[in-house]
Specification:
Helices cover 0% and strands 62% of the residues. By secondary structure, the chain is mainly β.
Length: 577
């Protein structure tokens, strides 16, 4: 369960690397066709045998170039952690991460012609200026204390601090032309702006895990309390675009000089404070050796305050909102699931969870919309084969949401906030997947997703989201992924071949009647291992150099089209000392 909002969805394992008891030293180098170069080192081991102290350090240096014009950046990460055991039952872990990154904001991408046809622009087209740049700095520190009691109980205390600071400067063309021919393909200058952001967050958490006996069976219990405080500040400055337009076919990126940001047409200051407290309790009840029931829930208490004002270029406040946007809310979020083991390899399951998600979107009266509420249902089957090394899943799902905010593409006349309307929507479909080892030398992943979506009710009958319409037309209904690796037999077993593809059917944008066709992107590669310590790899992404547009939600005639990466060759070297 999430600490505050609760909404079903996929997740990425973001657990930081831990120190190892055995010595570890790895170097990973990567370079590709566009000039991207990346290096990673990872060292770990025992720092002090007598005092049971272990440590680990990871570093990343990257120069990031893209296939698009003047789209580059760099990336540097340094991560260090250490842990110490006290006796046999207690361990303290501390660590810190420093991350600095630069990139190139890409604005709203490319347009298509008003008749819905592809302009067939060069794939390296970038309608941003050559001084577009984003700079980001992140600091993360943490401490964790674990203590094991007798009878399978563990108490964990965590303290976490994150600080993020960023600056983005950007200007780009965006819009549509009636007929984007070479003679009259003029696009307006959409924005010239700078954003300075700062936020920090403190989080404390206590977790209790263990087993208890009841009704002749052993059961699992999880309890947690989380307290989080976050502060977020943003300053936005906009320059007047002066209604300038430029020919999209002759644009070079150097037409507009980098402005003096001490001069501006107007600027916004937005400050928010957020406090979240969550109490979670869950138990896995082993009713029989095959039947298991999971019951749980979390109560979240959310408090949010928001302060905002805008200055015009003469320094006179154009609009100001003080502490008139406070928000307090408490809600219980239940969860339930049941699993039944058909045998040692096959399990059936069903689950239900409630949805609660706070939103800062505002309505036509500039009032904050009610939280998003809803339900998620899932039933499925899981199978394990080949000694647990090959896994299969089949899941049917349905998600219902109420009060989901949808942009009306209009702004409030005074505050200039975007206006959102609450809608009800439903998504349903199924996932099928197989992943793991077919043999010790042959691995396979295959997955198919079918998903349909519709509005079940709207606040009015707006053209773009009437009842029954697809609320996510940019998302394909059918998606299929297949990847495999195979280590050659006999004397050639130092070589491994790999390949696969991503396939999807047609998808559409907000208001373009002509859909984009489906496409398949193939990838292939080879890996050579001259010895146990060294791995060399060569991968070709988009093997057939397929020309396609990525899925992007905010896409219409005038913007939102981003070309997928052309054929790219990536070389990789990994050395384990």
């Amino acid at each position: 369960m999430k600490q505050a909002d609760s909404e079903p969805g996929g997740s990425v394992n973001a657990i930081l690397k831990r120190p190892t008891a055995q010595p570890l030293a790895e170097i990973d180098l990567q370079a590709d066709r566009w000039g991207k170069v990346r290096g990673v080192f990872d060292v770990s081991g025992v720092l002090n045998q007598e005092h049971a102290v272990r440590g680990r350090m990871v570093g990343v240096l990257e120069r990031d170039n893209s296939f698009r014009k003047y789209d580059d950046g760099d990336n540097a990460v340094l991560f260090g952690t250490a842990d110490k055991t006290f006796g046999n039952n207690t361990k303290l872990t501390v660590g810190a991460v420093y991350h600095r990154q630069t990139d190139t904001p890409l604005g709203f991408g490319l347009p298509i012609d008003r008749n819905g046809s592809d302009l067939r622009l060069p794939r390296d087209t970038n309608w941003g200026v050559d001084w577009n740049k984003g700079t980001y700095r992140k600091i993360h520190t943490f401490a964790e204390l674990e203590h094991y009691f007798g009878n399978d109980w563990k108490l964990t205390g965590k303290l976490d601090y994150k600080q993020n600071k960023s600056k983005t400067e950007e200007a780009y063309l965006s819009g549509s032309c009636v007929t984007c021919g070479a003679d009259n393909g003029m696009l307006p200058l959409d924005t010239v702006s700078r954003h300075d952001r700062y936020n920090h967050q403190w989080t404390g958490q206590a977790e209790l895990n263990g087993k208890y006996s009841a009704f002749g069976k052993r059961h699992d219990l999880y309890a947690a309390y989380t307290h989080s405080r976050e502060k977020f500040n943003i300053r936005m400055r906009d320059q007047n675009t002066q209604n300038r337009s430029f020919n999209l076919y002759t644009w070079t990126g150097g037409e507009i000089a980098r402005p003096d940001w001490n001069s501006f047409d107007y600027q916004d200051y937005r400050n928010s404070r957020k406090t979240i407290q969550t109490l979670t309790l869950a138990s896995r009840l082993n009713l029989t050796d095959r039947l298991h029931l999971i019951l749980g829930g979390g109560y979240s208490r959310w408090r949010n305050s928001f302060i905002w004002y805008r200055d015009t270029k003469d320094g006179v406040p154009d609009y100001q909102a003080g502490n008139d946007y406070p928000y307090k809310k408490g809600r219980f979020i239940p969860y339930a699931a049941v699993t039944y083991d058909l045998d040692g390899r096959n399990t059936l399951y069903a689950s239900y969870t409630s949805i609660f998600k706070h939103t800062s979107a505002r309505d036509k009266d500039d009032k904050e919309l009610s939280p998003v509420l809803g339900n998620n249902y899932e039933i499925g089957w899981k199978g394990a084969w080949n000694g647990g090394r090959l896994n299969t899943t089949l899941a049917f799902f349905q998600t219902e949401k109420h009060n989901e905010p949808i942009s009306t593409r209009e702004r409030h006349p005074e505050t200039k906030n975007w206006i959102y309307a609450p809608v009800r929507l439903q998504s349903r479909g199924f996932d099928a997947e197989i992943a793991g080892d077919l043999t010790p030398d042959w691995q396979l992943f295959a997955g198919y997703t079918y998903n349909t979506r519709k509005y079940t009710a709207t606040a009015g009958q707006q053209q773009l989201f009437v009842k029954g319409a697809d609320f996510s037309q940019h998302t394909p209904k059918h998606m299929f992924r297949l990847y495999t690796t195979y280590r050659l037999p006999g004397a050639a077993n130092r070589w491994t071949l790999k390949g696969g593809f991503n396939m999807q059917d047609k998808h559409r944008s907000w208001d373009v009647k002509q859909p984009l066709g489906g496409y398949t992107v193939w990838n292939a590669g080879v890996q050579y291992q001259p010895n146990k310590k060294l791995n060399l790899g060569l991968t070709v992404n988009n093997l057939t150099d397929k020309r396609y547009y990525e899925n992007y939600e905010a896409r219409t005639y005038g913007w939102g089209y981003f070309y997928g990466e052309p054929r790219n060759v990536v070389f990789n070297l990994k050395w384990t000392m």
